[in-house]
Known about the structure:
The chain has 83 residues and is α+β, with helices and mostly antiparallel strands. 42% of the residues lie in helices and 19% in strands. The protein has one domain: Arc Repressor Mutant, subunit A (Orthogonal Bundle). It has helices at residues 13-27, 33-42, 51-60; strands at residues 9-10, 31-32, 45-46, 65-69, 74-78.
Amino acid sequence: MVVRLMSELRLSEEDAFELIMSVLKAANKPLTTGDIDGEIKKRFVSCPDRLPILLNRLRLRGLVKGQLSIERKGWVWWIETKG
C-alpha cells in the first residue's frame, strides 16, 4: 500500500514564474531544465504547465536567457546580471 504523506501544491503561472526566477537567481550560474525541475520538486510544488513551456515564456518576455548546450545535452537557462 502506498500512502502519500505530502501532496504537491499547484502553483499559478505567475507564482511558477517567480519560483523559476528565484531558483535561477540563487544558482547564480546556468542551469539545465532538469536542474530547475529538480529544485522545484524539492519544494513539493507543481507548475501549471510543462517546465520547458514556462521557461520559454519567460525567455520571450526577456526575463531569462536560454540556449541549447551540447556539453550539457539539453537547454541551459540563466538570468543575465547587470553590471
